[in-house]
Write a structure and sequence with these properties.
This protein has three helices and ten strands. It has 170 residues and is an alpha+beta fold. Strand 9 and strand 10 form a beta hairpin. Helix 1 packs antiparallel against helix 2.
């Protein structure tokens, strides 16, 4: 049986972003109504592309992040920062980790990584230069340890994810 778990960006972050866009839109409208046409044009020229870029990074990229638990293993898809296929045969053990409190899992160095508003995705070095792939929107995650690296996975439904892993793992 296959179960898919999503790892979206926090709704608070998205709401704050939309509020900032609304404030910039109000400033543009005020600029045009006040006769400051070039100020409005400059705001559109600068804020428009930045808003599109941030919308992609804060909404589209995290929305595509999923963890699939299947009979064969775990499929992690969080493009462009992290993707992996973890067959059950390569899993050494799984255990819960609190990224705020567990010193062994503090991020020492980032390689290909994004972190914003509690959402983290990418490849990092933890502890004694061990490599870890992290995709999470929370601080409590499930660590899937393989012989090569750690996978720190924290979907929105962490209890359901842990239950699915427990059922599917041999």
């Amino acid at each position: 049986m296959t179960t898919i778990f999503k790892i979206p960006m926090s709704k608070t972050v998205l709401t704050f972003f939309l509020l900032v866009v609304a404030v910039v839109a109000a400033a543009v409208a005020w600029s045009f109504n006040s006769g400051l046409m070039w100020t409005g044009i400059c705001l559109i020229a600068v804020a428009g592309p930045l808003a599109l870029f941030y919308w992609y990074m804060l909404y589209i990229t995290p929305k595509r992040a999923t963890v699939t638990v299947a009979d064969e293993g775990i499929l992690l898809a969080a493009p462009p920062f992290a993707s992996a296929v973890i067959p059950w045969a390569s899993v050494v053990k799984t255990f819960p980790v609190d990224l705020r409190r567990d010193e062994a899992f503090k991020i020492a160095k980032t390689k290909k990584f994004m972190s914003f508003g509690g959402y983290r995705s990418g490849v990092v070095e933890i502890g004694d230069s061990k490599e870890a792939v992290i995709v999470s929107n929370r601080h409590d995650v499930l660590c899937v340890q393989t012989g090569e690296r750690f996978y720190l996975l924290g979907p929105s439904d962490l209890p359901g994810f842990m239950e699915a892993v427990e059922k599917a793992a041999p």
